[in-house]
Amino acid sequence: MLRMLLGNAKIATIDKTSDGDRFSYCMRNNGAVAIKDDMIVWVGDADAIPAEYKDPAKFPYHDLEGRLITPALIDCHTHVVHGGNRAVEFEMRLEGAGYEEIARAGGGIVSTVTATREADVDELLASALPRVDALLAEGVCVIEVKSGYGLDRETELNMLRAAREIEKHRAVRIKTTFLGAHATPAEFKGKPDRYIDEVCIPTLRAAHAEGLVDAVDGFCEGIAFNTDQIARVFDVARALGIPVKLHAEQLSNIGGTKLAASYGALSIDHVEYANEDDAKAMAASGSVAVLLPGAFYTLHETQLPPIEAFRKHGVPMAVATDCNPGTSPLMSILLTMNMSCTFFRLTPEEALCGATVQAARALGLDDTGQVKAGMRADLAIWDVSHPAELSYRIGFNPLFDRIFGGVSVKKSVR
Ligand code: DI6
Ligand code: FE
Q1: How many Cα neighbours within 13 Å face the side chain of 350?
Q2: How much distance in Å is there from the Cα of 171 to the middle of ligand 2?
Q3: Average pLDDT, the chain
């Protein structure tokens, strides 16, 4: 029976403000947290700790010496499972080639497909673990992992099998997403409809039957799939009872956001080219806007997502690394938070909410992402005195400890 009382801490509990319309720090500047097994059982001010938690024989006390506690961070959009890398394209891009030009020349996603198809599950897992470790080192306890670099039945299944394996090797929770509609593979070049019907949808059914799919995603873009093709995949996801999310309006506006909102998508991701009507549709469907500044940065994008429209219409905003070998080889959720402030003008409070409670919502999770009684004891403890420091610094990691389901990973408290 694991029990502990953490005290002498500042706590960014991440909760709704009193007028109930948005999440904010909801700071406790001299706070305490009681943990029992993998759950938070009490959070409050240090001078109001209930007697039952004050008995050190039952709840060993740990003085955090004024450090900051936040919910553990969540990376709600990653492609951490993949083969190879795309450093050569990085060079091409710096010599002037654009993302779409590289894609049409057979580069981009399709070039990672070759390396991924050559790897088996163990090799895919082994190459993903260092990327996972980089995220865990910055206080992450939940990672979403997509398929989408196999684009054939066996490799798509292998990617999701490797993603599921991660939890057996690391103290982390993995949510898997089927992204068979990521690109049309070379063998179906010019025939996207046949790929969707003959490979993508049958593979989704097989992955679901094997228990590998927590959500279904797609890439709705001129260089990928149109709304009709995505709708066919989403119809199957809905029939199987699987929630959907979508890469939409990344490079243009072809109606992906409205389509995803019409399916009640958990999240709609990238959304640089989304407009106010799209924001209204997202507000109505409750879809989370997942902002991916790493791709914006790597592609030298200039179109900013409609942040003011999201704020105006109450669209929740999450932030994520989009860790992938092409457009966002980014493995730092803290740098992602910094970029979402510096590029997209989010406040540090919105960025921290975006990497905690809003990221949880983007994954359909309601048991993590806040420091609140009844939630999982997934916490990050930081050597900082204000939560804004987490988005402020560039390339600096102030993590003191990560607590996953009540267990201190660095053994600082137990
Ligand atoms: N949009 C992106 O930026 C990534 N996937 C997507 O749908 C690109 C992935 C890659 O270039 O490998
Ligand atoms: Fe992505």
Answers
A1: 21
A2: 24
A3: 96
